[in-house]
Each structure stands twice: as C-alpha cells, then as structure tokens.
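*Target chain*
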Amino acid sequence: MEAEANRVALRYVAESTFGEVPSGPPKFKDLRYTGESLHLEQTFVRSNEIRSDRQTPSVTRVNLNAAGDISGEFSYGTYDDFLAAVLFAAAWGSSQAGTTATAFDMAGTITVADATNLSVGMWVKIEDAEDAENNGYYKITAIDTNELTVTPAPAATNAADGTAQCKKGTQQIVNGTTATSFAFEKEFTDLTNVFSLLTGIMYESMTMTVNTDGIITVSFTTLGKTETGQTATSGDGAPTAANSNPVMNAVDNVILILEGTEPTDLTEFSFTINNNLRGRRVIGTLGLRSIGAGSITPTGTANAYFESNATMAKFRGNQATNFALGFEDDAGNGYIIEFPEVKLTAGQTVAGGINTDVMQELTFEPYRDATENVTVRIVRFPAA
C-alpha cells in the first residue's frame, strides 16, 4: 500500500534536553497543519583519490541534521507553543482579574475603576461597553491615577459607562533568550507500524500572511538534530488531541490594524521573524551537538490603496512608526501581534498599469523599542 498525505498524523512534544525525547515516555500533542517537509539532510563527499580506471572509490557521509517546514492555518491556541519558541520566550503570562471601565473619551482616554494592576505598554480588551463602538483592543501609553491614555482612541465619548469590562492582556510573550527544542513524530496511519521521529527541532523562522479574501496562514522553518525511522510511537499511548477552534480569515477575524496611533486599512500584511540559527558540530560526532541562535530579525510588508502621503512621509523622512494587528475568532478568543518600533525601509506608490489602482507598497523592519525593551510582543485574550 502506498502512503497518502491525508493519512499522516503529525505530533510534537517539548524537549527538556536538546535532541532527546523526554523520558516517561511523554504525551505527544497532535498538530493541525496543512503541509510539512520535515526530513533528514545528509552531507556526502566524493573521494578525490585518483584511479587509473577513472572511477571514484567511495562516497562518504560527513554529516547530517534534520530540517523542513511546517505550514498551517491560524487558529486560536494551535500554535502557542511554537509562537513562544520562535520568540525564545520562557512562557506565556498568566491571566489576572480585570476591572470596570467607567468612562470613554474620543480624545484618547479610558477611565477605569482600579488601575492598580495596569501598566504602560499593556494591552487591554474592552467588552460590554454601552457604546458598542468602544469594544475592542487598546494599548496603554500613560496612566494618571485611574485614567488610561490609550491607542487607538475610543470611537465614542461616554462619560458614565458602568457596564464595560476591561480585561488585562497579561497572557503575553515577548522576544527573549530562552531556547526551546521539540521532538516531532510522524505516523503514517495507512501503513502498519511506520513512524518517523525527529529530535532537536528548533525554529529558524516564522512567517504569517494576511491577505484579502483569504485564510490567515502561518509557516515555520526548522533546523534540528536528526531523524530516524521507528516501528512504534515514542509517546505514552494516544496523543493529546488538537483543539477544534475555528480557522481565522482576513475578513471576519482581523479586528485591528494599527500603524502609528491610528487604525489603518491594508490589502496585505505579512511578516517573517528570523532567529539566525546555526548548527554546532564537533569532530568525532555525527550530527549537531547543539544549535546556536543569533539576533532576532523581523521583516515585513504592508500594502494598501494609496490615499495620502501620511505614511509615505514617514518613509521619506526616515521616521520610526509601529504596527499592531488584532485577531479574534467567533468565540471571542483573540491575539494582538505588535511591533512597537519599526522603520519603513522601502516604499513606493506607482501606476503599475492601465485600469489598476495605485498601491502603496511598504517594507518594514522592526527593532528594539528603547522604552519598552521589546522588538515583538504577542498577547492572547482567551474568551473565558
């Protein structure tokens, strides 16, 4: 029987030691995905010995490692372990109780009942506001007693709103220095006792793409230690089932696109976060001993219909700006992905051809925000 792609189960577990499946054995997690190319790479060298019959006496293996890509459609909770690993974040933060929002002002403030546990740089989510326009996600830029200065500004002024709930975005990750590796298992379920085990898998890069009329997609490029064939699972019984949260799209589930301090309309937004991984090899050892990481290097593109010179002026004037995207599924589970400081490194507004719109096409590069000491922030807001 020939194996079919539709029958391949992909699972993973975090390693405690690089390149080793945790003892136990561990409980693997099923992964939702649209494609994968995880495989073994081997390096061979042909002998340079000269023979009078013109033949090569040997082809010798000199090294190996694991590599490949994983692609998927973005849904809440599916890739949280991978997002943390891409950022080299130690762990997601824990939920905290929220507070009541008592007033909104279009000048850019929200008054809350208790700002004790709120801080500048934190994202909050407003729910159940009397003016529904004020529901949504806001970043705190200043606090004066219980008055929050936020971006974007509330859409409507309401001086006496006692029903709105302010949820704190404490479940967040930012770029850090904690390396995490994973073991992956592929089961070819239409074959009998055929498995593939990959260990020491780390994330070289991640790409997210948000296009009009499309599902939000993610892809991860990996570098790892090795891959072996197996005749049984390396996990403890049945794996933990993947969640069934709905896939997000660019029409219903993108609820905020922020450039600078104002919401903006885009036709495409994509970014890649690269970790500049390098494999470490030593004499006498086949494969990678470990994997080193370089600087976190995000890049991205943001395209829009051209309407004014406001954003292009920042490019022409070498001015810093910022981007933030907010996603929310039908159940109310949400994310904010934020780049607090970026430079627009390329930009154009050109007439590409007859019967077309003039597009504003921008390339950007995030870097460290000196005030927040952050390059990338991801905040999640569970519905419950």
About this structure: Residues 99-170 form a domain with the Elongation Factor Tu (Ef-tu); domain 3 fold (CATH 2.40.30).
